[in-house]
């Protein structure tokens, strides 16, 4: 399979984003997946997190980050994925005064002993944000014979001051603009500003 120089450069860049020492997306000193699998010495498995993870508990830090992206107000949040939350030790997935929400981390069975849960899912609907906490799935056999499935607990973490409708979204704004254009076209046709033949050509 031929890979162009541009494609290879892109692959290198993505790989660096994934685990590069200075990557803004990596967020730790090392990736020790190999060490955890093949080396018994815990000292080789240490992954020191970037300062971001220490400072994000401070609401001022979260507010500053949001401002950098032009966001403010109760409805603005930072969603951080793929970070295990040690719920078993009382750690909360909501940080920064409610501005940062950690999701995803912990679905993998390998994390269950450290986290005590099977991760989080963030659900966004017209009324706000719901955080679902999942309990580990033990086995298919237990699910069948004891009629147990993955248990989830839901918690509203943000309620919109008024229900969010389709018209309040970016796509809704585009559809409203299209409706206005079509309404103006119908009005122009009905008033004779645009002749029938011209309207058909348009």
Indicate the structural class.
alpha+beta
Oligomer: single chain
Q: What is the gyration radius calculated from CA atoms?
A: 25 Å
User: What does the largest sheet look like?
Assistant: 3 strands, mixed
Task: Please bin the fraction of helical residues.
Answer: 25-40%
Mean pLDDT over the full residue set: 86
**Overall body shape:** extended
| Number of beta strands | 6
Number of domains: 3
Detail the poorly predicted runs.
none
- What series of H and E elements makes up the topology? HHHHEEEHEEHEHH
Discrete helix count: 8
Please tag this protein with its features:
about 200 residues, alpha+beta, 3 domains, 3-stranded mixed sheet, 3-stranded antiparallel sheet
Q: Can you walk through the features of this model?
A:
The chain is α+β, with helices and mostly antiparallel strands and 202 residues long. It folds into three domains: 1-48, no CATH class; 51-164, no CATH class; 166-202. The chain is 36% helix and 15% strand. The strands form two sheets. The chain has a three-stranded mixed beta sheet with strand order 1-3-2, with helices on one face. It has a three-stranded antiparallel beta sheet with strand order 4-5-6, with no helix packed on it. A hairpin with a 4-residue loop joins strand 2 and strand 3 (100-103). The longest helix has 21 residues, at 170-190. The radius of gyration is 25 Å and the shape is extended. The chain starts with a helix and ends with a helix. The mean pLDDT is 86.
């Amino acid at each position: 399979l031929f890979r162009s120089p541009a494609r290879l450069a892109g692959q290198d860049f993505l790989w660096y984003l994934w685990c590069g020492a200075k990557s803004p997306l990596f967020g730790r000193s090392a990736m020790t997946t190999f060490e955890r699998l093949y080396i018994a010495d815990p000292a080789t498995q240490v992954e020191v997190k970037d300062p971001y993870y220490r400072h994000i508990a401070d609401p001022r830090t979260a507010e500053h980050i949001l401002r950098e992206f032009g966001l403010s107000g109760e409805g603005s949040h930072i969603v951080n994925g793929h970070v295990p939350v040690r719920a078993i030790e009382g750690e909360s997935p909501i940080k920064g005064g409610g501005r940062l929400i950690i999701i995803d981390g912990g679905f993998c069975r390998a994390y269950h002993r450290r986290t005590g849960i099977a991760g989080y899912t963030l659900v966004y609907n017209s009324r706000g944000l719901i955080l679902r906490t999942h309990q580990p799935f033990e086995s298919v056999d237990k699910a069948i014979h004891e009629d147990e499935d993955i248990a989830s607990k839901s918690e509203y973490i943000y309620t919109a001051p008024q229900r969010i409708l389709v018209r309040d979204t970016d796509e809704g704004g585009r559809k409203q603009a299209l409706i206005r254009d079509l309404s103006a076209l119908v009005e122009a046709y009905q008033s004779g500003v645009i002749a029938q033949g011209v309207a058909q050509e348009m």
